[in-house]
Structure formats: C-alpha cells, structure tokens
Design a protein that fits this description.
The complex is a heterodimer of chains A (about 210) and B (about 160).
Chain A (H helix, E strand, L loop, with lengths): L7 H26 L4 E2 L3 E6 H7 L6 E11 L3 E8 H12 L12 H30 L3 E3 L3 E6 H13 L4 E13 L2 E12 L1 H10 L4
Antiparallel strand pairs in A: 1-7, 2-7, 3-4, 3-5, 3-6, 4-8, 7-8
Chain B lengths: L6 E3 L4 E6 L3 E7 L3 E7 L4 E7 L18 H14 L6 E6 L15 H15 L3 E7 L5 E6 L4 E5 L6 E2 L1
Parallel strand pairs in B: 1-3, 6-7
Antiparallel strand pairs in B: 2-5, 3-8, 4-5, 4-6, 8-9, 9-10
Helix pairs in contact in B: 1-2
The chains are: A alpha+beta (about 210), B alpha+beta (about 160).
Chain lengths: ~210, ~160
Amino acid sequence: MNVFQLTTFQKDILKEIGNIGAGNAATSLSMLLGQKIDMLVPNVEIADFNEVIELVGGPEQPIVGLMFQIEGEITGVMAIVVEIEEAEYLVQKLTHNDQFLLSEQTDGTELEIAMSALSEIGNILTGSYLTALSDFTGMNLQPSVPHLGIDMAGAIMTIGLLEISQVTDYAIIIDTEIRQEEENHENIKGNFLFIPDPESFQKLFAKLGWN
Amino acid sequence: MTTTKTIVNVGIADTKTVRHPNTIRTLGLGSCIGTVLYDEKRGIAGLSHILLPDSSQARAANSNPMKYADTAIPQLLKMLQEQGARNIKAKMAGGAQMFQAGKGTSFMRIGDKNIEAVQEALRKLNIRIVSSDVGGNLGRTIEFDPETSRLSIRKRNHDIYTI
C-alpha cells in the first residue's frame, strides 16, 4: 500500500479516528476544567517534516509539547501542542493559582508543579484519546510516559518524527484542534497530532474492514 | 551603494549553499545538527540540517541523503567544491537533548549520537571544526554570515551570541 495516496474513503476513516479520539479527550478536559470544550473537524494531512512543523506555527514558534510514544497493535506518536499562554492557563486552572506564569523567572518548585500538572493533563487526554480509539478499532494501544518540552516548535516536534524518519520523509497526521471559548478568555486551543507509524495504517484499514 | 542581502533558509533534512553578502540559516534545531562548511577567503558557505546520525540504519531505500550525518556532510562538501570552495572549515551547532532521558527510548538521546556522527563525518573528510555549540537542552536557531565567518545562535529567552 502506498500510504501517500490515501483514498477519500481512507481519509474519512482517519478523520473518524480523530473525531472519536479527540472527542473523548475533549470530554475529559471539559470535566477536568468544568468548562465546555469544542472540537473542530479533524484534518488529515500528508506532510513532509517541514510541513508538520508549519502545522503548529512554524519552527521558531514557542510551544509546550507533550509527546507520547504509542505502543501496541498500532504504533506511532501522539503530540499534544499548546501555546505557552494556554499552558499557563491550564496550570492556573488546575492549581488554583491565577498568577502562575511560565517564564525564566518562574520559581523552581512552582515550575516543577506546573510541569507535573501539564504532564498529568497530557496523561489524561492521551489516555482518553487512545481508549476511545481502542474501543473503536478493537486494537490494543498504550501510551508511554509523557515527554514534556517547552521550546521552539521545530526543536520539539522533530523528536516525534524521528521514528518515522527512518522509514519515510513524509508523515500522515491526524490533526484535531480543540478549543474553549469563554467570555473573559477567548480561544484557548490545543492540537492533538496523532502520527501513526507507516506500517500501522495497513493494520488499521485491515482491522476496520476497508482494505 | 546598497546591496540587498538574502537569507537562505535551510529546512529539515536539507542542504543549501550561499555566497556573500547573503547569509544562510536554519530555524528551531533541537536534537538535529546544523553544520556549516565554509571557505573564508572566497565567501562561500553551505549549511546542512541533519536529523539522524547514520544512513545505514535507514529502513527504507532511496532515502534522502541529506537526512543523515554520514551522507549529508560529504554531499555538502562536494557541493561547495563544485562551486570552487577550497580550504574548507566547519562550524556546528545543535544536538540538544530536548526531553529528560528517564525511561524514554534511545531516541531521547539522539542529540549526542548526532553530535558524534557529525564530528566523525568531518574527521573522515579532514575538515577542521573551528567552533561548535552543541548539547544542552535548548533549541537553537542559527545563521551563518560568509562575509565574517560568524555563526550566530539564538535560543529561546536568551540573547543572540556568535561562535
């Protein structure tokens, strides 16, 4: 199978995966924050490495990235990407400290608490995404521990592409954006980038009965 | 007289060359390495942005040689020599460890392997590394000016410095 020529039908399956996974993750986040979270229609992209990084704002865009390796019957990478201010907002909400900011001056203990809060959010969201996906496909999927990085998007995202880069120069990405709109805090948004390994697509399509 | 300078952008797994007064840069290097080869006298330089150390580990045929240290560096040298560059020297930056190692797979330590692979590739070609800024745990944007042979480095929340 040439994964770089997805049929419309195959693309729709991948979109459905984004719908189901990120939908469940959005519900979890909504419960965690006690706020309504919306999900946008997933985007399925076949992108080279530079294009992947453009998807999250370009190589120099400062981001908070949570990276998980997916193991099991389907393997790949899940990246949750939010902007610095959005990560700050999430930490503020979870730690009930509305003064919290992620900067060079952030106190060490405070930073540690923030990092672990973000990692925990990542665990919950990735867990929800994969559980929904597992239920939908009947396939076993497990996330690794989270790898959290705060830096330029290029520097963070390339780590998630290393495994794939040994096989191909392109990635198929299921990109789903979730956002929360509140009166005094507009457009909190985050992206789930699910990047299955190339071999996983065949398994996925076979399992779902559309070969 | 005014001269317009162009900044040549090098993407991931890419290699390009430049002549003064133009400059060449690559953005957001993490565990990747940016290697500059340059001919100081003639003002010619090239930049390679590698992702992985070793092309023999590739699991696919016809892979892009500019992705690997062991294949990209010799190709970059060839490109420069074809443009008349001689007496070529090197500067390099990148190879950070972006995530805490811990229980992660070997990929979490890829930065160190990339550094070693670039150094080895340069050693084999007898190219001297004039200066380098590698390792650490921060991403880098780098820009080389063939006119001055300076490589400027920018990290998030840090002032620009040159090597």
